[in-house]
Write a structure and sequence with these properties.
- The complex is a heterodimer of chains A (228) and B (335).
- Chain A has helices at 26-51, 56-81, 85-89, 104-112, 114-118, 124-131, 139-144, 175-186, 193-201, 204-207, 213-227; strands at 8-12, 18-22, 92-96, 146-150.
- Chain A has 228 residues and is mainly α.
- Chain A has 2 domains: 8-150, no CATH class; 175-227, no CATH class.
- In chain A, helix 1 (26-51) packs antiparallel against helix 2 (56-81).
- Chain A starts with 7 loop residues before the first strand and ends with a helix.
- In chain A, 34% of the residues are buried.
- Chain B has 2 domains: 3-77, no CATH class; 85-318, no CATH class.
- Classes of the chains: A mainly alpha (228), B mainly alpha (335).
- The interface between A and B is large, with 66 and 65 residues.
Amino acid sequence: MCARLDTCHRYETPEGIELELILAGPLVRGLAWGIDFSIRAVAYILFLFLLSLLGGVGLGLLLIGMFLVEWFYPVFFEMRSGMTPGKRIFGLRVIHVDTTPLSWSASLVRNLLRAADFLPFLYTAGFFSMLMNQRFQRLGDLAAGTIVVYTAPEEEQDVRLPRATARPLPWPLRLDEQRLILQFAGRWDQLSEQRRSELAALLAEFTGKSAPPEEVLLAHANWLARGR
Amino acid sequence: MHQQQFEVRYASLWKRLEELLTALENGNARESRRDGAGFPALYRQVCNHYALARSRCYTPDLVTRLHRLVLRGHRQLYRAQKLRPWIIIDFIGRTFPRTVRLNGRLFWLAFVLFFAPAGIIGISAYRDPAVIYSVMDQDQVARIEYMYDPLNRKTGRAPERTSATDVRMFGFYIYNNVSIGFRTFAGGIFLGLGTLLFLLFNGLFLGAVAGHLSHPPHAAVFWPFVSGHGAFELMAIVISGTAGLVLARALLRPGVMTRPLALRRAAPEALQLIMGAMVLFIIAALFEAFWSPSSVAAPVKLGVAAVNWLLVPLYLLRAGKNVKVSLYSGGSRYR
């Protein structure tokens, strides 16, 4: 249901249906990275404080800890739920291009290649890679075959059409045109009265002049959804 | 059928799928086992409903609701495999050495890119003590000369070395060396240029040091110290380079595939190489931190080094050779 302009990822599953997901762009991913970076920085400081009490052994453990966190922090979280804490805050999730959950192999590839994406500083290579393909993939994503998408909001708000007497369409409409009317009616409560009539007036030819155009559209929408 | 009839008829079915999905997502084993067998059929049925709802142009909210169910179902049905211990054992025992052999030509290319500059600068640094200053400055040279000074009580990194120092150095070797290996691999995505630079640079650096320290009095300390872990560490560097070159090959010679597709196909294999290299780096770090600086007599150290230099190539050449398994085992996932 995305327009061609939208940053939408479509994938046809083996069941023959098309799944649609909204891709996450460089800005939100950068912010998520920033949060993850802060979490790591705090963790390092805590490590440093606790392990410095242990002397040389503590320093050794600190270095091993830093190695693990630096390279495998995202892998750990991505394999648990598909999202690092930073991504969770922004509602992002890493998945395969075919929309299936991330595999170990893909997660490791995309996170080891961070080293390349980071070059020459602050993910410049990754940024240009994201701008240069349709799915906002950085180099690691390209190699791993992964994308970062928005998770669907957990609670669906039940958008019900406002009730009105159903009214048949004056002539058959294409599917996307029907959908347009339904979407207009679905947004009924979010639009101001003036905006409703302003939008509906665009279809004056279709609605005729017998009633306010927005009322007519709502009646058609009710017919489409219920009365047919 | 209009939308209301449709919703009334199938609401209970959607609800059942939703409950099942929640159970699966929360790892609720009992409930998902009870209904788990019916899940794929149920999921496909709802896929069908979703397609119908779309083509019949039902209200967007119904379509969205079904879409969300279908997405969640898809996530559960095509879930990734869990990582099990035997996969790791199988990987070290068979898959990794086999993948190295499968990419033998790139392995030798990485080998030459690393050892050729090392050998050339090594020989000239051995002949001319000034050569080492072309790859490092005076302070660094003084430091490495001091490290391998026979007058140090415990040789290696510092004279005041204790067992706590050993643990610290172990951490350092893991942090530093494995990270270098990972960067060597990652550099492969820039058409191999990054890998090339890392291999050449490390080759030059290590070769110069080795050549420079091969004179008495340092030689008697240097070679027993480095030879033990060298077998693992140098092979690990070369295999990291091979992993990078596997990516580069996919980009430079994609064959009939598009470049992104070729890259994606090559990535799991490159990953196997770099993960194996990581294992070798860790073994090398254990040797370098706890064995190499120990006060064992030099001939014993050299003897162990000889065994290592025999075992590592033997492992890479022979391990997993006579076992019949299907190609592409080891969890690599092509998509």
